[in-house]
Amino acid sequence: MLPGDYNPAEYSAEYKLLYLQDLVADKAYEAITEFLEKQSEYEIASLLESFPTQNRLLIWEQVPESIKGEVLAELEYDTRQPLLENISSQEISLFTQDLDAQDISEILDTVTESVRTSVMATLDEETRVQVNKLDTYDDWEVGSYMDPDIIQIRDDICLADVQDWLRENEDLLDDESQELLVVDQSQQLLGLLSLVDLIKHDQNTLVSELIDTAITINDRLDIQDAAAIFRSEDIRFAPVTNSYGELVGQLNGEDIMEIIQDDVDSTMKNLAGVSQDEELFAPILTSAKSRSVWLGINLCTALLAAAVIGQFEEVLAQVVALAILMPVVASMGGIAGSQTLTVVIRGMAMGQIGGSNRVWLLNKELWVGAINGIIWAIIMAFIAQLWFHDIEISAVIGFAIAINMTAANVSGISIPLLLKRMNIDPALSASVILTTVTDIVGFMSFLGLASVLIL
């Protein structure tokens, strides 16, 4: 049990989850409320997403009214939706009254059009314009993540004037602000002024003397491409511009981290053939449906591999040892190809692969596959010889592993590069294609060599 005066930082997320599970099981409503009052909106959102839907509703009722809006904004769409189904527009208006445009847009994305209209009518004109601007972007575009409330200063004023202005408008800066946008008299972006420079330099210094170069991000850029830029450039703040070069928003550290995290989550789910919308505690039928498409595709590729095996029915019927060893060839090729595929997709996400280095990488993986293939071919041939005492079977398994592991490494880099050229997300389909290639090459080489050397 957690003590009444405990420090939340002293307890792990798992410990808190287990404690809350006990409270929910006991239906200790007052204790749940007391516990949640000591958590941040981020922790409450994480805890809600760690429970099945029916328990979420119980916990949600105990969340303090003062932070329900912040919690809703932090939740994933599928988690947030059931919580808002039976909530009136008046209640949602209360939740959103102290939120910024980003959080309000997140929440209103979940409700019906009539509720959205009612809530929008309660917003001030500036916030309403900002929310409408955010809603023009698709979920995969940078614009949907940006803060449309731009903090900008002129380059021809001194630091003392900037500080006076910020004190007079104390609500302009939030906890994430680290830089200010600097513009000229025609409102063209010149660069950034960091808050550190604002404080440490002589207050009579002109802003123009301390401007840092700004890397701008287009508002329609795919978040995968944006995430690659953030990683390679180590960006913690970025102005967002439209196709005309006009400032439309800014990305703070929290926004950038959210883009990177969403990109990582998307890549991981795509690699596993899972829908990007599926969450851990989604209903059974929802999860089953979201995974069925790629399971069906995988079945088709498995049948293709089975058809290849069927062409060598005669040799399998005569040599039982081949049926025993055949999975080893496919497995070794599969893991070798997956290793290369993982490294390559990560490199592509980081923006590290392109131009002439693709040929170098292809040559490298060819030799890595060949070297590892030969090493493990010799080891497996030795094991097969001790097992079956047949030099021909040992030779077949050895040569097949060497061929398949080499082909797997080459496929692990060539498949994602080819898919990217075809404008297909490599993380979404490369693993399925790779599995098909390694199975077919492995079975063809193994059974083909067996037909030549044994029959």
TrEMBL record:
State what this protein does.
Answer: Acts as a magnesium transporter.
Tell me the protein's name: Magnesium transporter MgtE
PROSITE patterns to which the protein is assigned, alphabetical: CBS
Question: Known InterPro entries for this protein?
Answer: CBS_dom (IPR000644), CBS_dom_sf (IPR046342), Mg_transptr_MgtE_intracell_dom (IPR006668), MgtE_N_sf (IPR038076), MgtE_transporter (IPR006669), SLC41_membr_dom (IPR006667), SLC41_membr_dom_sf (IPR036739)
Its placement in the membrane is given as: Multi-pass membrane protein
Q: Which UniProt keywords apply?
A: CBS domain, Cell membrane, Magnesium, Membrane, Metal-binding, Transmembrane, Transmembrane helix, Transport
What SUPFAM superfamilies would the database entry show?
CBS-domain pair, MgtE membrane domain-like, MgtE N-terminal domain-like
What is the annotated localization of this protein?
Cell membrane; Membrane
Q: Spell out the family assignment given in the record's similarity comment.
A: Belongs to the SLC41A transporter family.
| CBS domain span | 146-209, 210-266
Query: Taxonomic lineage per UniProt?
Result: Bacteria, Pseudomonadati, Pseudomonadota, Gammaproteobacteria, Moraxellales
Q: Which SMART domains match?
A: CBS (SM00116), MgtE_N (SM00924)
Domain of life of the source: Bacteria
- Assembly, per entry: Homodimer.
Q: Does the keyword Iron-sulfur apply?
A: no
